[in-house]
Amino acid sequence: MAALRAAKQAMRREIKKRVAALDDQEKLRQSRVISQKLFKHPKYARCERIAVFLSMHDEVRTEEIIQDLFKHGKTCFMPNYLTQGTSNHMDMVKLTSMEDMMSLPLTSWNIRQPAADDNTREEALETGGLDLILMPGLGFDRNGNRLGRGKGFYDSYLERCMKHPKGKPYTIALAFREQLCQDIPVGDNDVLIDEVLCDVLD
After folding, report:
1. Global confidence as pTM
2. DSSP string covering 138-173, please?
3. Which amino acids are annotated as binding site, given as ranges?
4. Contacts by 101-104 with C-beta closer than 8 Å and gap 24+?
5. Which residues are annotated as a binding site for substrate?
6. Residues flagged as binding site for ATP
């Protein structure tokens, strides 16, 4: 376990260094290519209830994707991260519009989140489940292994999805090419993702 943790930490440092070397223009260019790939994806076209992360500075930009979700009348959910002491919990809560998103307060991570007392939003697993989750992460390999930030938010949420009557949603990771790795070190609690979208040819 200690060896796995050390291997993951070393890989996180390496990937963060590679992504930090990208300028904003290149991040935006890759993000646009990935968004266009997603819009043509048959799974995306068919899915109605879709969860998408609100991107941080070192992640694929998702604003264009969120706009497209609303434009096509899909139901959009976003992560709501809750950390209490050593326990981490994530829900996927409903966003109603771009204006709704822009009105959310910024956290210390510089991402928008519902306020702590905002408990009126629909949570995906309490209603109809999810068809598709667009996944963030630090690193990915072609076998569906994902390296997160070490908090376990998404792995835990996918475990909860599996208990929902609808079952586990399809998962697509959005990645800069600099986040692709030959092999990601994984443990028993790491959940495989179905597909990685990036700007390189498949």
Report:
1. 0.92
2. SEE-TTS-EE--SS-HHHHHHHHHHHSTT-PPEEEE
3. 8-12, 54, 59, 146-154
4. 101/54, 101/66
5. 54, 59
6. 8-12, 146-154
